[in-house]
Amino acid sequence: ILNVEQSPQSLHVQEGDSTNFTCSFPSSNFYALHWYRWETAKSPEALFVMTLNGDEKKKGRISATLNTKEGYSYLYIKGSQPEDSATYLCAYPGGNTPLVFGKGTRLSVIA
Amino acid sequence: DTEVTQTPKHLVMGMTNKKSLKCEQHMGHRAMYWYKQKAKKPPELMFVYSYEKLSINESVPSRFSPECPNSSLLNLHLHALQPEDSALYLCASSQETGEAYGYTFGSGTRLTVV
């Protein structure tokens, strides 16, 4: 059974603060690592699909890094805004299996 | 069209009812998924269809019956459910089943079994 861990479980930051959270996954036989943003009452939205060790991807104020050798990925948000409030999920596919999701980090940005 | 559409958004059903959840996408994706999500837990995989054929069934009870009538539609037929089956049911699709393909999710059906 694949184990995908995310921390922290929840996070409250002030508007304008930068923040980051972690996803840990099995470091053997790496395939890919996905990040999704899930706002309340909406669909989970794909942010990044990362496949290479050392990869860094960026989308606006959000970026992610990947370390496949030690089995972790960081998601960074620069200058958090209230609209960034959401649950951020990472997901890991094991070979030919579909995505296994972590429990998510629930981010609240306070204006 | 870049969306996955799920209907209904909310459903309340009795334990003796039969109902169906529907999922539709027109992105030409050949893989479609059903996930179940309970409060404060991650989405859990139920079924995967690849090229309209069931490829994965994660030991889901037979009271849940998936169906893929064509490449754009995915149904989940429900019969004799239990209160513990109350959850958010999410449909997703991806171009193929490979690990590098991102998923497009619907907004889910919130099911309550009474």
Describe the structure.
- The complex is a heterodimer of chains A (111) and B (114).
- With 111 residues, chain A is an all-beta fold.
- Chain A has no helices and 11 strands.
- The model of chain A has no long low-confidence stretch (mean pLDDT 93).
- Chain B is mainly beta.
- Helix content of chain B is 0%, strand content 56%.
- Chain B has strands at 4-7, 10-13, 18-25, 31-37, 44-50, 53-57, 64-70, 73-79, 87-94, 104-105, 109-113.
- In chain B, strands 2, 4, 5, 6, 9, 10 and 11 form a 7-stranded mixed β-sheet that branches. Chain B has a 4-stranded antiparallel β-sheet with strand order 1-3-8-7, with no helix packed on it.
- In chain B, strand 5 (44-50) and strand 6 form a beta hairpin.
- At the A-B interface, strand 5 and strand 10 of A face strand 5 and strand 10 of B.
Rounded radius of gyration of chain B (Å): 13 Å
Silhouette of chain A? globular
Radius of gyration of chain A (CA) equals 13 Å
Largest chain interface and its two residue counts? A-B, 25 and 24 residues
Number of helices of chain B: 0
Task: Count the E strands of chain A.
Answer: 11
Overall helicity of chain A:
under 10%
Uncertain stretches of chain B? none
Q: Percent range for helical residues of chain B?
A: under 10%
Q: Approximately what portion of the residues of chain A adopt beta-strand conformation? A: over 45%
pLDDT averaged residue by residue of chain B = 95
